[in-house]
Amino acid sequence: MRLFAFLVSCLWLVGCEASSSTNNQQVLQNLIERSAHTVAIGQNMVRFSYLCDTHRVKEMDQVFTPNCFINLPDKGFQNLHGVDQFIKNFPKYANYNFQHVTSPPVVDLDDSMTTAHATTLVIATVFDSFNTSKARPEEVEYGSYITDHVLTKAGWRIQNMTVSTFGEWDS
């Protein structure tokens, strides 16, 4: 449905453009390129959540720049400089299972299409792995990932990540 709406918007823009067909093609090409970057940034946020949920943190170089800044509310994850610090601190969660549910990000792409700012809503659930017979959450947090992305040769990577929390679910 989103793709259909996107294509209709593209056709409308091309049809409404009063200038030359070359300009129409440039407008359409720019719109398609911006949309592709937005999707790639969203995919990067999904990959971050997936790697956390599956405890595959050694693959975080697919998500972050090496010199990234990460500031999460949990102890041990505040004001981290570099993806290596994030990976080093992650084992404290080795006995817990996670589930991240994220929204599509709101992306502000700069004109050069090489840097972007994004906000992604998140519900993060931590399960008690010592009682795997029940899928009862031990903790649920609500918030936003506020991220700055840069386009590298390997694709979009997160340069800065801060989490803004709305609060916790109390059972």
Automatic annotation (TrEMBL):
Instruction: Kindly state which keywords UniProt assigns to this record, in alphabetical order.
Output: Signal
Sequence ranges assigned to domain SnoaL-like in this UniProt record: 37-162
Q: Which Pfam families match?
A: SnoaL_4 (PF13577)
Please tell me whether the keyword rRNA-binding is annotated for this protein.
Answer: no
Q: What Gene3D superfamilies does the entry give?
A: 3.10.450.50
Transmembrane segments annotated in the record for this chain: none
InterPro entries to which the protein is assigned, alphabetical: NTF2-like_dom_sf, SnoaL-like
Q: Which residues form the signal peptide?
A: 1-18
Q: What is this protein called?
A: SnoaL-like domain-containing protein
Organism of derivation = Penicillium alfredii
